[in-house]
Amino acid sequence: MHENSNIHPMAVVHPSATLGKNVRIGPFCVVDEHVTLGDGCHLHNNVTITGHTTVGDGTQFFPGCIIGAAPQDLKYRGGPTTLEIGKHNVFREYVTAHPGTEVGGGVTRIGDRNLFMGAIHIGHDVIIGSNCILANEVLLAGHVVIEDCVTIGGHTGVHHFTSIGKYAMVGGMTKVTSDVPPFLTVASTRSTRQEVRAVNGVGLKRNKFTEAEILRLKQAYMRMFSRRARSSGVPISETIQNILAETEDENVKYLCSFLLRSFECGRRGRYLESLRNSESLNPPPRNTKA
To answer: CATH number of 70-200: 2.160.10.10, 1.10.10.10, 3.40.50.720, 3.90.950.20?
Structure first.
């Protein structure tokens, strides 16, 4: 039984669970029947992994994590929905993550190399890309989509059916109630809703965007969101269409198409709400910069 793994004698691992090579499971952990753990996974003490959950190679779970428990959704009927976790993720203390629901696509999917700091909640039918950093006590409601290389500050709540575009930065304690554009920084104060503040220049540099690419995004941002643009009386949708007609930059095109999708198709700026009655509520994130 699980010959290649290091399982503490005070852990409870179902004999039908699938464990890869060199899996380490600490004391007081519980691994249920339908769980698959890839090579090199490490469960520190007091971790519970249940449900139809698959975990990729090299993923770590720190004490108190509860992964794969039934969705917190009254519409869930007990079906064998799944939670799929990629490779080399880090789940710090007391993270919770739930599988999908029957009406929401049936799967919660998490990519590779993400860092989830303490006490994060990942709701049902959430799709998270790769290389994201979520700080302490971020709360993701159901049906949220987070694209690749997103950073979210601590104590942030994300409304259900909200999308956060790739390379975006969300400031701490932000109330995210509508889609967050890619490449930009969004934050709120105690008395304001989320607001677009700037291009995420630091994050883009860290991800090896060139100065020219960043400059083109800043120029587009100024035309759409600067004080002068907001006071000009020109609808932002018209400005976006003008930028799309002029630019050849793929990142600027992606920013514009993301915004138009949210403005024109989404109720209250949440595009995914327009898909609530569709067969798939959670399309996977689009391809990111190589």
So the answer is: 2.160.10.10
